[in-house]
Amino acid sequence: MMERRRMDAALLVLLLVRLATALEVPLDLPQPPTITHQSPKDYIIDPRENIIIHCEAKGKPPPRNGTHFDIDEDPNVTLKPHSGTLMVDISRVKAQQYECVYQCTARNKHGTAVSNNIVVQQSRSPLWSKENVKALVVQEGVSLVLPCRPPAGLPPPIIFWMDNNFQRLPQSRRVSQSLNGDLYFSNVLREDSRNDYICYARFPYTQTIQQKQPITVKVLNQEPADERKPIFLIPSGPTSSKMVLRGQVLEMECIAEGLHTPDISWTKVSGDLPAKRTSFLQFQKTLRIADASESDAGDYRCTARNRLGSVHHTIHVTVKAAPYWISGAPKNLVLAPGESGVLTCRASGTPKPSVSWAMNGIPIENSPKDLSRKVEDDTIIFTDVQTGASAVYQCNVSNDYGYLLSNAFVNVLSETPRVLTAANKVYQVIKNHQALLDCASFGSPIPKITWFKDSRSSTLDGDPYILHDNGTLEIHVAQDHNSGKYTCVARNSLGITENHIYLEVKDPTRILKQPEYKVVQVGRSAVFECKVKHDPSLIPTMTWLKDDGELPDDERLIVDSDSLTITDVTENDAGVYTCVMNTTLDHDSASAELTVVERPDPPTDLELTDQKKRSVQLTWIPGDEHNSPIKKFLIQYQDSLHHRGHWHNLTEVSGTKTTAHLKLSPHVHYTFRVLALNAVDYSRPSFPSRGLKTEPAAPDENPTGVKGFGTEHDNLVISWKPLSSLQSNGPGLHYRVMWRQKVVDSDWTTVTVANNSKFVVSGTPTFVPYELKVQAVNDHGAGPDPAIAHGHSGEDLPVAAPDNVQVMWINSTLAEVHWDPVPSKFIRGHVEGYKVYYWRKHSLHKHNPDLVENQVLIFSGNHTHRKLPGLHPFSVYSLNVRVYNGKGEGPPSSDLQFNTPEGVPGAPTHLLVTNPSLDSLTLEWSPPHERNGRITGYTLKYQPVVNNSNELGPVEELALPANETSVTLLNLKYSTRYKFYLNAKTVRGAGVAVSQEAVTVIDEAQPVSPFGNVSSSSGEDGTLISWEYWGPEQNVYVEYKENSDGEEEWQTKRVNGTQNFVLKGLKGGLSYSVRLVAKGHHDQLPHLSEELVVSVPAVASRQVDIATQGWFIGLMCAIALLILILLIICFIQRNKGGKYPVKEKEDAHTDPEFQPMKDEDCTFGEYSDNEDHKPLKGSRTPSNGTVKRGNSDDSLVDYGEGGDGQFNEDGSFIGQYSGKSASRETAGGHESSEAPSPINAMNSLNSFV
């Protein structure tokens, strides 16, 4: 029974195979067991936790567990429900009792699968054995090894060295830890002395740390150690060997001792090191090659070298291999009856592994014979299998370094095709990306897959489609036209089925505008833009990252739909910002760096060194440059002796320097400071340096800018630029001023001037050259011998005029004046230039009056000829020439008169067209105002203008004599516009032409108008005026005025460029005169159209008779009908008699102050012709028994005097309702039998309803 229960438990084992290519049988179909999950072969357990040995499987029918382990006899062992996982409770026992090899099986009627041999071992972290560690005393410079030798654990511990404060001991090229955990010193130093060298071992499974006894090292320094060449501490000897398994990490180490510390290098003797898998640890002492392969076998050489020599060691590496699959583990086979198949178990290893087969856990040689099965080494061949041949085959591949065990079943089935991919599945891919449309299927025999698109016109088996063996359809580069409906059809010999798949090709997500690199100053804002385009059917999500991590939670970072704004930037904001646009299918990203800059911090630690009498060296330490390189340093000084509190720029040095050699001046109390400049700004000044005083001395230099000039004709002003306090070099600064006339053997005159900048010498001759000197002197001596400067005494006005003045004309408006220069002795100063005064006296033409135009031209410099521009032709001019100096101008030369030659004339004064006729017209003109010579004649040109265009016809030309001022042109075309050009001529040529236009007319009394078909029409917006126009004038207007008895002015509207215009604002019921006007040149008469009389219709007022409106008539009829119905209801109620319950309640009321209305009357009150007016029912009665009439003018009581009740024409109710009354005694008084009013009747209806 227990065996039965154990068989019912499912056993699941993890099978590490490539499931993507394995054939999956749906679980609803018969199939042998398949192990899906199992514990690792070497299973190390934590002794503090329960033991769980996994074993899971699937199959149809569900597999049962088979084991030789009797769990009924051990209360600590149970099976996980509905599973084959073994669980051991170690709370009452030791875990080591269960250290052994486990293997589980999963079987059903179709076969048996087995797991690996699972070796269960308990992790161990043993304590360090007690030992008496003696202190190590060594001489400085020798090598040293501190052994660790940790206890053996499972798995091996991780070794590290620390001190008493749990701080890792520093390691270097000189001190390093070996692979076995020992600490090696290539040579020891005095600082290596300490008493807390502690080796620690950390055991990873139990997370415990074991500590070795501290080791004390004392380094002696009795005598200096001799330098020595390297010697290897490990490995020993010239060669060694190492074996590594394929796939493991190959680690080799070489540690050498020597003084000085050796450097280690590695080479592979038989080839190159694999760059991507190679790394160097422990300061090049350890060579590590990851994922070792057969190609890594060979000789490796490590070299230790210092300046005294080198040593080599060769390590021979061999690579062995536990078995590994070549083409993957064997795959499950699903065969239909009569089919054939192959199981392959192809593996390799070093040494070459052996292959053995088993069927359902039994060696295949011991299994029942099967003629359809043939075993050939690593392959089993099945031919013509039959139903019932299903089984699980085990392949075991092993050598000295391990084994591989794999289960693969052969399942013999007859099954119609089925598509396993979900129906109507929608695939979405990005354009230009790969599209994979799945059509997972199952059937036995294996179905053949065929794909169709949309109309099924042809199968999809060629470019651009790729059909994979598993039925997947691949479109390598999907395009928009690939979107649509796809159908996959699965068929075998037993049937056919199909499935529909939908493909949607989406536009890719692209960042159109990427964020850009930013350099931002602290405190300002940075904006990164990230504009994205994506498929509108996909939902985008914009994410911003900083340095590949999330953005800081800071309100200064503002994320918008397409930008990131960082306000009030700080230095912590610097970094790389990335915008990532994600959709459900793809993403795009772009990054930009933000560099935050700020002005540099001030330099620090100013120090003055190498001080001499006239120089000192200043050094400093630069401050933080804040991401903007320092361009230069500015050194300033303060002179506390002369200008305390004022800082002056002394010099600048490059931003790469931190030292400046400063020149010093005597008699200064210096203090220095330094400022740094980057691209942002200058830093704050550094703290001042210490003070530095220099001794006084005689001046090193004399004043500069020495000048001599006169302010009067008899003085000499000597000026200079005084020395600064820094240049004075000492107290008592004054100046020694010296001068003499620039003649041979003249003596120097010397005066002493206090600290000033000029000295005036009086009584000098006019404009005499002088030599000048100014020397600086202080209490400690005079400056160097001064240089000689030159100057002149004061100037006076010139006393002579230029001679030999002549004029040569170049053309009619330009002449050139020549003169002889004035001798220097008469100028009495520096020649500033010459002035030419000239004026036009009159024109040479008799018709022009005399005209004097005074003009002056100033020519700087000592010239002897200059040009006079802008002269009038054919005129008489006079001129004179004067020289001038700094004091003023001298006397004029004699006036010289000259005539200008003739020039071309100006345009005729006017040109008029008179007497236009059918084929002729007359032109009249006046001579030019500016004749510029004698008029020799006129030239008239004219040409026709084509109607309705601005094109010109052929030109006719006439030469006219000078004495004519009119001409009549005959034989012109009728009704034609002409354009005329007239200019005058002199001997110098033709002048500017004047133009005019005119039209020949049919009727000589009436000129032809360029307007035609002028008409008008009225609309809601105004009156539309339309016309045709073919004239050349560009300025066209509409003029209109009101037709009335008075004289109205024409109103003008400009309408250029169109042939219709809407006149707005015309008054209705009036008539207006309208005309069109075309205006050309101001000398031309305007062209008018015929006047058009426009009558503006009156606007009818929109008065509506409400009595004729349908809505009003309907309303009145409804009111009348309602009144009639109410009256009928009231009369019926009155004739029926009796009381309503409401009436009974009203009669029961005894409150004299409140009397409700009576419903049977359908009235609010009663009206009587008696003089005693009784109160209305339901009203409050005054104390005097009278009823006051309301203020309403519409009260029906006002209409109660005689006459039958009737309606007037507009439906209003007038007259009096009358009838016999019947009195009833009530608590409130008498009731009237008067007929009810319409208002009462309506209120009664409300109560009734």
Automatic annotation (TrEMBL):
Ig-like domain: residues covered:
126-216, 230-318, 323-411, 417-504, 508-595
UniProt KW Membrane keyword: yes
Q: Where is the composition biased (Basic and acidic residues)?
A: 1142-1161
The organism's place on the tree of life at top rank = Eukaryota
In which compartments does the protein localize?
Answer: Cell membrane
- Protein family (similarity comment): Belongs to the immunoglobulin superfamily. L1/neurofascin/NgCAM family.
Stated name of the protein: Neuronal cell adhesion molecule
